Amino acid sequence: MKFFVLTIFPQIIECYAQYGIIKQAIKKSVLDLKVIDIRRYADKGKVDDTAYGGLPGMVIKPEPVFSAYKEIIQKHSKPYTIIPQPWGKRLTQEDFERLSKKDSIAVICGRYEGLDERVSTLADEELSLGDFVLSGGEVFALALLEGIVRLLPGVLTEPESLLSDSFRRWMGYPVYTRPPEYEGMKVPEVLLSGNHKLIEMWKLWHAIERTLKYRPDLIPQDLTPTEKHILESIKKGMSFEEWITKR
Q1: Which of 26, 94, 201, 222 lies 20 to 30 Å (CA to CA) from residue 17?
Q2: What is the pLDDT of residues 177-194, one digit of tens each?
Q3: Is 9 found in the same domain as 75?
Q4: Does residue 84 have an active-site annotation?
Q5: Same domain as 137, residue 68
Q6: Does the annotation list 190 as a binding residue?
Q7: What is the CATH number of the domain that holds 145?
Q8: Quick one: 213 and 152 in the same domain?
Q9: Long-range contacts of 155-158 (CB under 8 A, 24+ apart)
Q10: C-alpha atoms less than 13 angstroms from C-alpha of 165 in its C-beta half-sphere
């Protein structure tokens, strides 16, 4: 995948790309990340100006953004283009999965009081991280980049871990590692039992329990008989140990 980020602060993206999963994706040639400094396309490096009609703060000018974008099209092809905006659709895991199928994506990062409205004509889609305001679009671009890249084939060393991701169906279940006891806190015995079927049931129980507690709005409609039974049992105040004994 080609992933373009148009920004006036390319160092933010370039620094992040030196670590973790982004670095691995680039190293494996799964990701071709191109960070484009909008300032290079601005007259004397001036990328912003005051707004017509009066507005505190500055607005990113259209000319350097359009010039940078046109060069992308000339050298490569037109990418699927996203502009982060407060009013955009809130980004979800389903969006990551959908966008991971694209051949190329471009994110145009605003700054200060935003982008000249004419830049919005370049967007195929406007998205948002949530109902809050940040100083620029770089954090959005990084979140989008990481969320997409980890879904690309060949990036994760253990791709089966994607199957247990939160938001695929249920929220994540509790996870533990060594030591089996730390400051009086013990790893649940079921996880040490070696009973794989029981462990899978424990994971499902706690994933459903966590979803019910923190994000009941995400409970699926198409519950399996087992999921429905677990959900009803949790609502009755039953513990996993009680449920598995009576099952």
Answers
A1: 94
A2: 999 999 999 999 999 999
A3: yes
A4: yes
A5: yes
A6: no
A7: 3.40.1280.10
A8: no
A9: 155/21, 155/24, 155/25, 155/28, 155/30, 155/31, 156/21
A10: 16
Would the pLDDT of 159 be above 70?
no
From the candidates 37, 64, 111, 150, give the one annotated as an active-site residue: 150
My answer on whether 155 and 192 are in the same domain is no
- % of the chain exceeding 90 in pLDDT: 91
Rounded CA separation 97/111 (Å): 27
Annotated binding residue 129: yes
- For residue 19, tell me if it sits in a domain: yes
Considering the domain boundaries, does residue 166 fall inside one? no
- 150 is a catalytic site residue: yes
Is residue 165 annotated as part of the catalytic site, yes or no? yes
79, 84, 116, 138: the active-site residue: 84
43 in a known ligand binding site: no
Query: Does residue 164 have a pLDDT over 70?
Result: no
- The verdict on whether 98 is a catalytic residue reads no
Residue 188: inside a domain, yes or no? yes
Tokens of 101: 């199928």
Q: How many domains does the chain have?
A: 2
Question: In this structure, are residues 127 and 85 in contact, taking their beta carbons and an 8 Å threshold?
Answer: yes
Print the domain residue range for 240: 181-246
State yes or no: 110 annotated in a binding site.
yes
| Mean pLDDT for the stretch of residues 21-36 | 98
* Predicted pLDDT at 56: 87
At 87, is the secondary structure helix, strand, or coil?
strand
Q: What is the pTM of this model?
A: 0.89
- What's the pLDDT score for residue 54? 84
Q: Do 107 and 23 belong to one domain?
A: yes
pLDDT, mean over the chain? 94
| 172 located within any domain | no
